[in-house]
Amino acid sequence: MAREMLGIDIGGSGIKGAPVDLSDGAFARERFRIETPHPARPKPVAKVIAQIVDHFGWDGPVGVTYPGVVIDGVAMSAANVSKRWLGVDAAKLFADATGREITLLNDADAAGVAEMRLGAGRDRRGTVVVLTLGTGIGSALFTDGVLVPNTEFGHLQIDGRDAELRASAKARTEEGLGWHRWARRLGEYMAHLEALISPSLIIVGGGVSRKSAHFLPLIEGVRAEIVPARLVNNAGIVGAAMAAAAAHPAETAEPAPRRVRASGATGGAQAERGTAEAAR
């Protein structure tokens, strides 16, 4: 029987979720997506999270990603969302909105957890970095399979600007960059990152990774092996579900959501344990 958990991923353009089969990362039901409110302020986003939970009739714990630094359930950065998120206890906000226990983690960390467990990073040791190319550049750093959370390498400065302003998928689209020119920018960014952390493997994720054949072979000047993510843009949902399952092992649905009501936010220490367990 499948073991399932609901994962929800907050993105710049859409908030999406699905119950995940934890054995292989497959969606147990069709993914449900709602446009991200603009501006993406806390209460409107919490309302969308509640709509997704209600859509699936989910009564157990929920894993949710946030596009920024998360410490003890609190949003500590807000680069690509409203600045009103700064200092907000987002885990509690979502728990109050849904009536469910929430495990909250950085969106790229969630994607990284999924890729290391089920995707391109499976069984890889040493230093591995997962980069998610989208509205910005998210990052997840692993050493011998253990997550170092909240790295935010997309904000490394190159030529006096955040790297993600030049090398994200959004930058490619907005500036009309061809694959060769964008690959040059990605190469500069990855070489800078490589000089700092010396990864043996770089996994490139985000929706644009579906087109990796167009740009990964064009990246030069990087020693590390560069591979596309296997879970593509679903990794955030899968990783969020894994983190929630690790934080609440006794409440993982088998095979469908159990009719158990729960309320309150997952404690910060418990959420961090869940993320660490999911990455193993």
UniProtKB/TrEMBL annotation:
The name this protein carries in UniProt is ROK family protein
Matching entries from InterPro entries are given as: ATPase_NBD, ROK
Origin: domain of life: Bacteria
Cross-referenced PANTHER family: POLYPHOSPHATE GLUCOKINASE (PTHR18964:SF146), ROK (REPRESSOR, ORF, KINASE) FAMILY (PTHR18964)
Family per UniProt? Belongs to the ROK (NagC/XylR) family.
**Protein source organism:** Actinomadura bangladeshensis
Q: Where is this region: Disordered?
A: 249-280
